[in-house]
Structure formats: structure tokens, C-alpha cells
Design brief:
The complex is a heterodimer of chains A (about 525) and B (about 325).
Chain A (H helix, E strand, L loop, with lengths): L5 H10 L4 E2 L13 E2 L2 E6 L5 E6 L13 H11 L15 E8 L2 E6 L6 H6 L7 H4 L11 H4 L7 E7 L3 E6 L12 E5 L4 H9 L5 E2 L4 H9 L3 E6 L3 E7 L17 H9 L3 H9 L3 E3 L22 H10 L12 E2 L2 E2 L1 E7 L3 H16 L3 E7 L1 H9 L5 E7 L6 H6 L1 H5 L12 H11 L4 H18 L2 E7 L1 E6 L41
Parallel strand pairs in A: 16-17, 16-18
Antiparallel strand pairs in A: 1-2, 3-4, 4-6, 5-6, 7-8, 8-9, 10-20, 11-20, 12-18, 12-19, 13-19, 14-15
Helix pairs in contact in A: 8-10, 9-11, 15-16
Chain B lengths: L1 H28 L15 H10 L6 H13 L13 H36 L4 H14 L3 H15 L19 H38 L3 H8 L4 H38 L5 H10 L3 H29 L1 H6 L1
Helix pairs in contact in B: 1-11, 4-5, 4-7, 4-9, 4-11, 5-7, 6-7, 6-9, 7-9, 8-9, 9-10, 9-11, 10-11
The chains are: A alpha+beta (about 525), B mainly alpha (about 325).
């Protein structure tokens, strides 16, 4: 409910179940590919305005009480209560109400039919125990005792949380979905990236979910470790702010012009830049979408790399170097702009330098502002930037593109459309795609929307990282999904003959402190 | 003595109040807010506003300040925005780790620093003195974070005889015997303590050497030698007692420096103490937690200085009588 970051979600998803889970294809339209979880089956109403979820009779909370339909209805009421302030609440707009037909049947009622209505109920709701939370003050759930001592229904049970240090879970041996192959999983919290990698390299950690290029070489040299590539839903981009930072009502003197943006995009050899920064650990982005998303299309036409073409376009638009200093001008405006970059991201800092050089070649001067993460966040929120290097980790639902590139995201004071790109045609295409019950039609509309945004170039879509995890060789992971590498953690294993001391603790409880 | 102590403690209260006020203003002036880290496209304006109101951050800054100081006067440090827990609880968990690390480092660094200073004076002009002088200068001039990283790299990775970080083994500690747990804790204490001790002892050694150099030329030292006292007795009973006063001053002054050093050392060694909490709180703009760290730090420094005053009185009978 409050799992706003990946680390928290990776733990919560082991302890709590959903009604159903997405398949590897990450389809969010209809129920195709969804696998039974707390609900062992479901039935659509003939008008598709309600779905009845039948709770698996074997599903139990870790305190032994059965999971019931009332828990589902209660969970929906929690998520949508403004007092609770859950970030998932707004994603449940399509749902009208949830009722318990009987103790084993929860019925989700919808305001209208929509392609992702099943996804909204089955995937977004993480079911909470009514019998433990019903009397809790909803305004202070974040500090409720059960927030630090959760009682779930997942394949692992909570054991302990040493604040700022470790979180430990242990196999729920009587779970209705079967006993996990691992006895115990412990998350250890490192204060920064380097400390985390060092723990892996020193053998104190068995798995680290994200390695950088130089770490991969180190891991490769270590005979007891291995690397595990897996897909991601991230893409990195350079956004142009289409409005003046000082006066948001005015269009930006440089970037409001679509042709200038396209010309600047033509100056960037994305393939070469991506290889320079990431080696083989990333691919040039295909648009505002990761290749792992169900609506991705690798045949989208990209703006070509053409430095001479870029110069010709800028010349034709009146941007010329009249004083011979290598920087173009148009009237009194110099083709010079700032680039806001968080210093916490080494790859983005590298991209900033390479982009600076790429733009210099076509007569544009870039001033890089390398600032700490929180300061960058504040400037972005205030839209106080000209260009910025950003990364979006998208939701499995392709509809997220509306929040990051749609008009609503531009005009809301806290919207995620940072560059204020506003295209009614783009929004219409996305909206149409999101109402298609037919997957083929949905993808066709999304393709047109993606192509439109690439052509309009409100951003240069730079890279799509291929995530690489580092792990001890004895760790055998199961399928690592793009949206959540941890989704199948209960099916990871360690062969019996390769176990070391810490694998042999078994299921016993820790000694009293 | 009691009156001096009470005066010092009252001064400490004023200092803590001033620190709380200055930090309150500075942290609110810094760009960003506690919600930057929570930003994702799904956190709506309404959700953000609701969270902001729940934390009182929607109030005018002067009102927030008055409320905060009012709460502080009753000993309430507020709730951490990012950790969703009372700041006092976070401090209670982090402070023992920092005190353990700092306390061990202070004891060791003063013991080693004073001893090195004495050896340098006792062996004036020898290779030993030159080696110790060079060594202490080397560590004194070394950036704390760099030394921490190098020690970590050498002794936890290249020659993996010590753990890379943490207070205890995160997996095995809970399953060890009581003796095993103590040993595990000590094992994890070695590298951060060695780093902090090396950095601090070097400065103390140089200070002690200089103080002893002045004292050994005094008449009373010559008299002690003339009376036939051994060199060891001259140094420990006569010279050191007089030369230790400036080092006690240094002890009081070293608290802020050690706290500062602990920030880097705790970060490098993942030591969940005050330094690490402060760094994370600053990065996430967790206002109550930043203030809690500043107040706790100011309290520690103030108490450190009171302790130095007490030690002064113990070491110098004249001060005791004056009081």
C-alpha cells in the first residue's frame, strides 16, 4: 500500500499476495496470461462491468486465519481512502466498488468497461488482513505496529527487521501455493551503491540486483560469482523544456520550435553514445517505452543521426554563427542552454559530457548543471531547467505514458511531464489505445502515439538499460521479470551440495537478542 | 565545581537551542523537499497534499518553527518522514552504535597518541622518532573518507580478513551463541575503529609531542632528573602530567571532528550510526530527522566539553581549587 520504492516492493511481494499475477509477457489487457494467486479462478459478468474472484480455499494469513472476500473489499476501501494516502489509490479509478458475495467470493464492480480493468483489480491490489487492520487509525497506518511486523499471506513469512540494516523472511512451509525452495531470504541494506557491490564481491552478499559496467568486469574475474542479465522497464532521455523556466506561460525561445528539437536530435549519434557509456549493457531507446513492455515496437522510425543535415536545418531556421565563435545565434538569442543532471548518476553525468560535445559540433553550447539529487528534484518540480537527463521506470501498464508525456502531466503542478510537451493528437491516440479491448488494435494505436512523440522530439530518447545482477554461482534464479526481478523469488534455489553455512540455518528462529 | 558544572550545562542548553534554530532555517532554505524521493507518476497532487498536511508541512514556516521548538521543549523530536518512526527511536538505535565507535576510537586514539608523543620525546633524534613523526604526519594529512576506503579495500577485499561493513554479520549474528555475538560485534568494529583511531591519534601524537617538548625543558623536570628519578618516572610522573592539559583541551575539541569523521567512516563501512542516519536524512530532506541528528550531535559535543572541563579539574589541582 505504501510500497513506493523497488526495495520495499521486493519485500512486500514475498509477504503478501495479489488476486492474480501477470505472466512473463506483461500483458495488462484483459486477463490473458494472468496466473491465479489468492484467487484460484474468476468469472467475468456478461456485460464485463464486474468480475467475481473466487478466493483459494487454502489461502491463509500467517496467523492462521483464512483469507476471505471481506479482506479484498477491505483492502479496496483502504487503498481508496484519502486518509491513507496510498499512491496506488489513484490507479483504481476504473473500480466503482468491491463487495463480498460470500466469504470466498469478492466481486469487483467497475464504472465502465476498460481494457485494464482486470489488471487494476488483480494486480494493483495487494490484499491486506481486515481482522488486523479494521480497528487501526487509517491516518497513521504508516506508523502502525503491523507496518513493521507484517502478517501476510505470501510464500514467505516475516521474521525481523533491524532498522537500517536487515530484513529477514522465512519460508511459509504450509503455504497454499507450496513451500518456497529457499528457506530464508535476508535483505541487507547498504548505504550506497559501492558498499553494496563490495559486499557481493567480498562474499558477504549472495545477490545484488544491479551492476554497472565496471562491476561486471570485477564480478567476471571472481570465480565464485556470476552475472545475470534481465530485462527492465527503464528508458533514459534528454528532455527539452518547451516552456521558459522563468515564465511558464511563454514558449521556450529555442525548444518551442519542433524543427530545432529535431535538428538537435539529429546531432546525436545515440548508438555511439550508448556504447560509450554502457558498452553492451544498454541499447538505444526505441521511444518512450521499454522493449519489455507489451506495446513496444522495435520498428518505430527514429530521427536519423545526420550532423550535416542538422546544420542545414538550423541554418534554414535562421540559427547561424554570425560572429564566428562557433555558437549559432538568431537575432539576439544565442543557441546556448543548460542541462540539469543529478550528480548521483554516473552514467547521466557521462552522457551530459558526450551530448555537450555532440551539440557543440552543430553550433549549440550546453552548460551542464551537475547537482545533488534532491536539488535536481526540486528544480524539476518547479520546471526550472532548459534540458534535463531523466530516467523513467515505467509501470507494466502502457498507460503510464499518458502521465509522463500527456497534457494532464504537463499542466498538473506536480505532473510528470516535465518538458511540458502538449499534443492533443498524442493524447487522443493514447486514450484510444487504452480503450481497445483488442490487443492488436491497442498496439497499433500505441505505435502511432509513440511514432508521433518521436517525430515531435520533445525529448531525445537515448537508452534502455539491460539490467545485470551479480550473484553467487550457487544461486539459481527463476525467471526475472522486467517489472520486478523478485517476482519469482520463492522459486529460486540453491543446490543441496553447494550450500554454505548461512544456507544451512534452516527454518529455526533467531535467538533472543 | 558544582556551580561551574551547572553553568556549563545551562550553556549547553542555549547552544542546543541555537543549533536547532539555525539548522531548522538552513534545512528549510535548502532546495527540495521530503517528497522528492517519493516522487513517481502515481503520487498525485492530492496524495502529496494529504501527506504534507499530516506532517504539518503545509503550515507557514514560522508556525512550523514555533510548533517544533514547542515540541522540542517537551523532549519530543517528532516523526521521521522517510522512516515513518519517531526520531527519538531512530536516535536511540543509532546513537549506541556511534558511541561505541567513537568511544573506542577516542580511548584508543588518546592512548596511542599520547604514547607515541612520549616515545618521540624519549627517543629524540633517533630513527624511531623520525619514523613516528613521518607516520603521524602521513595519517594526519590523510582525508578520512580516502583512508576509510583504502583500509576497506585492502583488509576486506584484497586480503579478506575483516568484514566489509555493518555492525554485525547480517545473516549469522542472530543465530550465534552469546559469546559468538560479542566476537562478531568486535570483529565488525575493527576496521572503522582502526580508521578513526589512525586519523585522530596522529593529530594527538603531534600535539602531545609539542606539549612534552615544552615541558621537558622546565626546571622541575631537570630537578626530578637531578634527584635521580629514572627517565620513565620523569616522563610519566612529572612531564606527562603537565603536558597532558593541552591534550585534554584537544579531547573536547575532537568531539565535533570525530562526529564529522564518523559521518564518512560510517558511510564507507555501512555502520548504522548517527553519521549514516544524518547523511541519509539530509539527502532525503527528512526535516525532523536532520534536526534530531543536529540536536543529538550538539548535545554530544556540549557534553564532551563538559567532560573535558571535569578532566581538567582532575588533572590540574589548581583548577580544582579555583572552582
Amino acid at each position: 500500500m505504501y510500497a513506493d520504492d523497488a526495495m520495499t516492493r521486493s519485500v512486500v511481494d514475498q509477504l503478501f499476495g495479489r488476486l492474480a499475477d501477470m505472466g512473463a509477457e506483461l500483458n495488462t489487457v484483459g486477463d490473458r496470461g494472468f496466473m491465479p494467486r489468492l484467487a484460484d479462478r474468476w468469472e467475468w459478468a456478461t456485460d464485463s462491468l464486474s468480475i467475481a474472484f473466487h478466493i483459494d480455499p487454502g489461502a491463509r494469513w500467517h496467523d492462521g486465519r483464512p483469507v476471505t472476500a471481506r479482506d479484498v473489499a477491505f483492502t479496496y476501501s483502504l487503498y481508496t481512502d484519502p486518509k491513507v494516502g496510498s499512491s496506488v489509490g489513484p490507479l483504481l479509478r476504473s473500480i466503482d466498488s468491491v463487495t463480498a458475495r460470500d466469504s470466498a467470493t469478492a466481486v469487483v464492480w467497475y464504472k465502465q468497461r476498460s481494457p485494464e480493468q482486470f489488471f487494476d483489480a488483480a494486480f494493483q491490489l495487494i490484499i491486506m488482513p481486515e481482522h488486523l487492520f479494521s480497528s487501526a487509525d487509517r491516518a497513521s497506518l504508516r506508523t502502525h505496529e503491523l507496518a513493521t511486523q507484517p502478517v501476510g499471506n505470501g510464500r514467505f513469512r516475516f521474521v525481523r527487521w533491524d532498522k537500517g540494516s536487515t530484513i529477514e523472511i522465512v519460508a511459509d512451509t504450509a503455504n497454499y501455493r507450496g513451500r518456497p525452495k529457499l528457506d530464508r531470504v535476508i535483505w541487507t541494506i547498504a548505504p550506497d551503491f559501492t558498499a553494496g557491490v563490495t559486499r557481493l564481491l567480498a562474499g558477504e552478499a549472495d545477490f545484488y540486483e544491479f551492476l554497472r559496467a565496471d562491476n561486471i568486469i570485477e564480478v567476471g574475474k571472481n570465480p565464485s560469482l556470476k552475472t545475470i542479465p534481465y530485462p527492465s522497464l527503464q528508458y533514459g532521455f534528454l528532455t527539452f523544456n518547451l516552456k521558459e523556466a522563468k515564465n511558464r506561460k511563454r514558449p521556450h525561445a529555442i525548444f518551442a520550435d519542433r524543427e530545432v528539437r529535431r535538428a538537435l536530435a539529429m546531432a546525436v549519434d545515440r548508438q555511439k553514445l550508448v556504447e560509450s557509456v554502457f558498452g553492451k549493457l544498454a541499447l538505444p531507446a526505441i521511444g518512450p517505452v521499454s522493449r519489455a513492455l507489451s506495446t513496444a515496437d522495435t520498428t518505430l522510425q527514429q530521427i536519423p543521426y545526420d550532423v550535416e543535415g542538422s546544420k542545414r536545418i538550423l541554418d534554414s531556421l535562421g540559427w547561424k554563427d554570425t560572429n564566428g565563435d562557433g555558437i549559432r545565434e538568431k537575432g539576439r538569442r544565442v543557441l546556448e542552454f543548460g542541462m540539469l543532471v543529478p550528480s548521483s548518476s554516473r552514467s547521466r553525468a557521462q552522457f551530459a559530457v558526450l551530448l555537450q560535445e555532440a551539440f557543440r559540433q552543430v553550433g549549440a553550447k550546453v552548460n551542464v548543471d551537475l547537482l545533488e539529487f534532491t536539488t535536481v528534484g526540486a528544480r524539476l518540480k518547479a520546471r526550472d531547467f532548459e534540458t534535463t537527463l531523466g530516467v523513467w521506470q515505467t509501470d507494466p501498464s502502457p498507460g503510464g505514458v499518458r502521465q509522463t508525456w500527456g497534457i494532464e502531466g504537463s499542466r498538473a503542478s506536480d505532473g510528470s511531464n516535465l518538458g511540458s510537451y502538449e499534443s492533443r493528437a498524442f493524447d487522443a491516440l493514447v486514450d484510444t489505445a487504452l480503450t481497445q479491448m483488442d490487443v492488436v488494435k491497442e498496439r497499433a494505436y500505441f505505435r502511432r502515439a509513440y511514432q508521433m512523440i518521436i517525430d515531435d522530439a520533445p525529448a531525445i530518447f537515448l537508452y534502455e538499460p539491460r539490467q545485470t545482477a551479480g550473484a553467487h554461482k550457487r544461486i539459481m534464479p527463476a525467471n526475472m521479470r522486467a517489472d520486478s526481478w523478485w517476482a519469482n523469488l520463492a522459486d529460486w534455489s540453491i543446490p543441496a551440495d553447494q550450500r554454505i553455512d548461512r544456507d544451512r540455518i534452516g527454518l529455526r528462529a533467531p535467538a533472543a537478542p | 565545581m558544582g556551580r561551574v558544572l551547572i553553568r556549563r550545562l545551562l550553556q549547553a542548553v542555549v547552544i542546543i537551542y541555537l543549533v536547532a534554530t539555525v539548522v531548522f532555517i538552513l534545512i528549510h532554505l535548502a532546495p527540495g523537499d521530503p517528497f522528492v524521493y517519493l516522487d513517481n507518476p502515481n503520487v498525485t497532487v492530492e496524495v502529496r497534499a494529504q501527506r504534507s498536511a499530516a506532517l504539518g508541512l503545509d503550515r507557514p514556516l514560522p508556525e512550523q518553527y514555533v510548533r517544533y521548538i514547542g515540541r522540542l521543549a517537551t523532549g519530543n523530536l517528532g516523526e521521521s518522514i522517510f522512516l515513518n518512526r519517531p526520531v527519538a527511536t531512530v536516535m536511540r538505535e543509532a546513537l549506541p552504535n556511534t558511541i561505541l565507535l567513537m568511544g573506542t576510537a577516542i580511548i584508543l586514539s588518546f592512548g596511542i597518541g599520547v604514547a607515541i608523543g612520549m616515545v618521540q620525546i624519549a627517543r629524540r633524534g633517533s630513527h624511531v622518532e623520525r619514523a613516528l613523526t613521518t607516520g603521524s604526519l602521513f595519517f594526519y594529512s590523510m582525508p578520512d573518507f580516502w583512508l576509510a576506503l583504502i583500509v576497506l579495500l585492502v583488509f576486506a577485499y584484497w586480503i579478506p580478513i575483516f568484514p566489509v561493513g555493518g555492525v554485525v554479520d547480517p545473516v549469522m549474528h542472530a543465530y550465534l551463541t552469546p559469546v559468538g555475538r560479542i566476537l562478531d560485534r568486535l570483529w565488525h568494529l575493527v576496521l572503522p575503529t582502526v580508521t578513526l583511531t589512525a586519523l585522530t591519534a596522529a593529530g594527538i601524537a603531534r600535539y602531545q609531542r609539542s606539549a612534552l617538548l615544552d615541558v621537558v625543558r622546565e626546571d622541575f623536570v631537570r630537578t626530578a632528573r637531578a634527584k635521580g628519578a629514572t627517565e620513565r618516572t620523569v616522563m610519566t610522573r612529572h612531564a606527562l602530567r603537565n603536558a597532558v592539559l593541552p591534550v585534554i583541551t584537544l579531547l573536547g575539541l575532537s568531539f565535533p571532528a570525530l562526529l564529522g569523521g564518523a559521518v564518512f567512516v560510517e558511510k564507507v563501512y555501512s555502520w548504522p550510526g548517527m553519521g549514516l542516519v544524518a547523511v541519509n536524512a539530509l539527502a532525503t530532506r527528512d526535516y525532523p530527522l536532520v534536526l534530531g541528528c543536529a540536536i543529538t550531535g550538539a548535545t554530544m559535543v556540549s557534553l564532551g566539553n563538559v567532560l573535558a572541563d571535569l578532566l581538567y579539574a582532575v588533572a590540574d589541582p589548581r583548577l580544582r581549587n579555583d572552582s
